[in-house]
Write a structure and sequence with these properties.
alpha/beta, Rossmann fold, five-stranded parallel sheet, four-stranded parallel sheet, 9 strands, globular, transaminase activity, repeat, transferase, carbohydrate derivative binding, aminotransferase
Length: 332
């Protein structure tokens, strides 16, 4: 494969990034897991914007399913605009940020700590304001990410969350699956493409559907379709899509189907079959069934990032510099 863009280079680096990260963070995650078992949080607040916020959706499913702890997303405007302090005693705040310097994210983290929460920073820049503020830092170890569209930092965020969960819950299955993850992501890079230019050339509007962990990554897929290709894409849970938006299918809607082989697979496929019968054009994005179900979403994203980068170049677009975007968005 010829490397032509920063986005492609960074997506291809993911297996090596995650292999190094898992080794480097093992001690930190073991200590954090022991502390969380000794004093379990009553709830977890996820703090992030954009791609990091989407990693927080994955964290919601992960920690609620594997640890039984309720997880909710912070609304940074509550701190930044409305200047309200939440009461977060006995809570954990997990802040995800590649740069660790977006002002509204740092402010939200400051107020979470002031409200009584223990703060974990999952961050790529370890001397950033966010990292200095945190009680515990879990570095992404992703190296510089120069393409505007995040790839390796997103997948590294997901692997950090799974490693943290594996140590916290003392899950031998998750530990074993993580050991195989870099090799399986390498395999995903060598799989046939799921997206093709003919799917995308005339596409202007679409939806991305998943269930559970599939929905968690559907948000990121939709974002990349918007920012890299300029396609209007919206993500839904396949269950939620039936509560009204399914009427859009009558207009020959294109649907990206994220199929994860887990507890929700049968119901999700039943819902997708109904949608297809109504006339939708369905583009399949299936996870490899031979992976641990909690890690299958990472393989889907690994393949998708390479596919969308290639599609952008085929369509005459620059995936490294989507119009109107920059790497660090300083929202106040």
């Amino acid at each position: 494969m010829v490397t032509e863009t920063r986005m492609q280079q960074e997506a291809l680096a993911v297996p090596q990034v995650i292999a190094a990260q898992l080794e480097a963070n093992a001690g930190r995650c073991a200590a954090l897991g022991a502390a969380l078992r000794e004093t379990p949080p009553q709830a977890i607040m996820m703090i992030g914007r954009g791609t990091s916020d989407h990693a927080g959706v994955f964290a919601k499913y992960l920690f609620e399913v594997e640890a039984g702890i309720p997880v909710f997303a912070a609304a940074p405007s509550v701190a930044g605009i409305y200047q309200r302090q939440l009461k977060l005693e006995n809570c954990l705040a997990i802040c995800i940020s590649q740069s660790g310097q977006s002002p509204d994210i740092v402010q939200q983290a400051e107020l979470a700590k002031a409200g009584g929460a223990k703060l974990i920073a999952i961050v790529n820049v370890t001397d950033s304001p966010l990292a200095r503020l945190a009680d515990t830092v879990l570095p992404l170890h992703a190296g510089p990410e120069l393409a505007v569209a995040a790839t390796k930092s997103y997948l590294a965020s997901l692997s950090v969350l799974v490693q943290m969960c594996a140590y916290w819950q003392q899950s031998h299955q998750l530990h074993a699956a993580l050991e195989q993850l870099p090799e399986q992501l390498q395999q995903a890079q060598n799989e046939p493409a799921m997206l093709h230019t003919e799917h995308l050339q005339q596409l202007r509007h679409c939806v991305v559907l998943g269930r559970g962990f599939g929905y968690a990554i559907a948000r990121e897929v939709a974002l990349k379709l918007k920012e890299v290709l300029g396609i209007h894409a919206e993500a839904f849970s396949s269950a939620e899509f039936l509560h009204g938006p399914v009427t859009l299918v009558e207009k020959h809607l294109t649907v990206f189907n994220i199929h994860i082989h887990d507890e929700g697979s049968t119901m999700h496929q039943r819902q997708l079959a109904d949608i297809e019968q109504r006339g939708a054009e369905v583009i399949q994005m299936k996870a490899p069934a031979n992976m641990h179900p909690r890690l299958q979403p990472l393989a889907v994203m690994q393949r998708f990032y390479l596919d969308i980068e290639h599609a952008a170049r085929q369509l005459g677009l620059n995936p490294d510099a989507p119009p109107g975007l920059k790497k660090v968005t300083e929202t106040h």
